[in-house]
Amino acid sequence: MKLLTWELDRPQRADSAGEDKRAKVTAYLLDWQEGERERKRPAVVICPGGGYHRLSPREGEPVAMEYLAMGYHAFVLWYTVAPGRFPQGLLELASLVAHIRDHGEEWGVDPEKIVVSGFSAGGHLACSLGVFWNREFVYGPIGRRAQEIRPDGMILCYPVISSGEYCHPGSFEHLLGEESGDEDKRSLVSLERQAGAHTPKTFLWHTATDDTVPVQNSLLFAQALVANGVNVEFHLFPHGGHGLSLARVDTSRGEESLVEPGCQCWIRLAWEWMKNL
Fold first, then answer.
1. 152: which DSSP letter?
2. Mean per-residue pLDDT pooled into runs of 10, the chain (277 residues)
3. What is the side-by-side order of every strand in the sheet holding 2-14?
4. What are phi and psi of 9, to 5 degrees?
5. pTM of structure
6. Cβ–Cβ under 8 Å, residues 28 and 70
């Protein structure tokens, strides 16, 4: 495996000393095997959660290791959070997807099998690229064409989706800042309203007992995808709180509530779904 790290061009924020802190990428690239130099592998871009005000390491590298074990390249995007505002993180994700396509030959990435995957607020970010990839306000500022930033699929894990009745208030406050009360802005980032036939195929999972990001977020988005004829696989688990990651002891930071055996199969289900990209 080859490990690469780099900073993205857009500054994230400046600290009191004036030093720019930039969004970062950690790339986990599988080695070429003997006799398979021409082989191209799918890639998964992982966006950890954290309510758009922090980023959760439990939803970064441990998940990347699972995708590596499946035979996929993995990229973790440590994107801009508050005080950065929409659409800065979205532009960073779009730039990364295009950058991966640019380096497809060098890294052995199949340019038609690049999936974005996100957890909680990171799910909102990943989903934002899925619904906005063909909008000029995303591809224009980074000097790209729409098809260069389009994800080929989405894996959304207990995602923040709606800014309406079932919203997670903190995520939208951190995402929009002083504009969080602007109804037009809130409508724009309520992603069930933005889904259409252009949205890539989607794998989605949530728990019925999530008391932080209500399951209605995923239900609303799944309903919108079905209404627009988009291929969607949706798994609703009966038990489990928010922020489960892989739902195992090793991603629980010692908290019993973050271990849920009934949800641990989601990563295997995602693997099966990926086979049909």
1. S
2. 90 40 93 75 98 98 97 98 97 98 95 98 98 98 98 98 97 97 97 98 98 98 98 98 98 96 98 95
3. 2-14, 20-29, 73-78, 41-47, 109-119, 153-157, 202-207, 232-237
4. -70, -35
5. 0.95
6. no
